Amino acid sequence: MIRLRVGLALLVACSLALLSCSRSHSDRIVVGSKNFTESFILGELIAQQIESHTKLKVERRFYLAGTYICQQAMLAGRIDIYPEYTGTALTAILKQGISRDKHDVYQRVKSEYENRFRLTLGPAFGFNDTFAMEIRGEDSRRLNVRTLSQAAQFAPRWRAGFGYEFMERPDGYRGLVATYGLHFAEQPRIMDLGLLARALKDRQIDFAAGNATDGLIPALDLQALEDDRHYFPPYEAVPVIREQTLHLHPEIAHALADLGAKISDEEMQKMNYAVDAQHRDTQDVVREFLKSKDLVP
């Protein structure tokens, strides 16, 4: 745990140092993202939508570590917009209790962000990227395990792997193991999010925390276990926007409104698959998606 905290501290310090290199400017919009594929794709989606529907220049500042770094970058004016998830904002940033109602979560986050941070939410993109606890597909079939409750009896034989943030956040590891009575063979390995799925496939670990729309789930024959006790809140993907940015450039609101409810869970998984498994260029994947939705002028 000490090494974990030291590692987190170094990560935060390095990321803040990078953020301090330059501030966002009034002559362009700075779009950020977290450090995993889906966030990168959504950041590019926001950037291309603004570029094609306004006359504004867009600067991309992607892979800014995790939730807390992106939030601080927004508050410091280093970035103007980034994609977030409502359940993450509710629990990790606002430190509020979990709600199962997606509309309630959206409104609570929007209201609190506006009152406390002068940030607001754009319309939800349309998909819910909840946490997905994953095991290998072959293990799921052999042991007949489809839910987290069923997994509890086998967990003592398994090695688990999780991302840094999942270990610390209130809707993460501690609550999960308490809810389902999970006890693993050893202390969980703390790994980069981008390495977890392949580490699971390669048998370095046996149980991992991923995301429901991860394109590698079908590509690597992984099984996402059902959250049958409904531990996780809704995680609707939304753009978080600085109110000052919207005041200066109201045309951004109109551009982002067109993205509301445009992406299904399956469509997001396909885009993730295209980037992660097929190694396609993210800009091309996003451009094709926007074209398929008639969002390209």
Give an account of the 3D structure.
With about 300 residues, the protein is of the alpha/beta class. It folds into 2 domains: about 10-130 and about 235-290, Periplasmic binding protein-like II (D-Maltodextrin-Binding Protein, domain 2); about 130-225, D-Maltodextrin-Binding Protein, domain 2 (3-Layer(aba) Sandwich), CATH 3.40.190.120. Helix content is about 45%, strand content about 15%. It has helices spanning about 1-20, 35-55, 65-75, 85-95, 100-115, 135-145, 150, 165-170, 175-180, 195-200, 215-220, 245-250, 250-255, 265-275, 280-290, and strands spanning about 30, 55-60, 80-85, 120, 130-135, 160, 190, 205-210, 220-225, 235-240. Helix 2 links the parallel strand 1 (about 30) and strand 2. Residues about 1-20 have low confidence and may be disordered.
Describe what is shown at a glance.
With 297 residues, this protein is an alpha/beta fold.
End-to-end Cα distance, whole Å, is 51 Å
List the helices and strands in order: HEHEHEHHEEHHEHHEHEHEEHHHH
Helicity, in percent? Answer: 40-55%
Q: Strand order of the main beta sheet, please? A: 7-6-8-5-9
By CATH reckoning, the class of the largest domain would read Alpha Beta
Largest sheet: 5 strands, mixed
What is the 3D form?
globular
The class by helix and strand makeup works out as: alpha/beta
Task: Compute the number of structural domains.
Answer: 2
Per CATH, the superfamily of the largest domain is Periplasmic binding protein-like II
- Give the radius of gyration: 19 Å
Number of helices: 15
Q: Report the portion of residues in β strands.
A: 5-15%
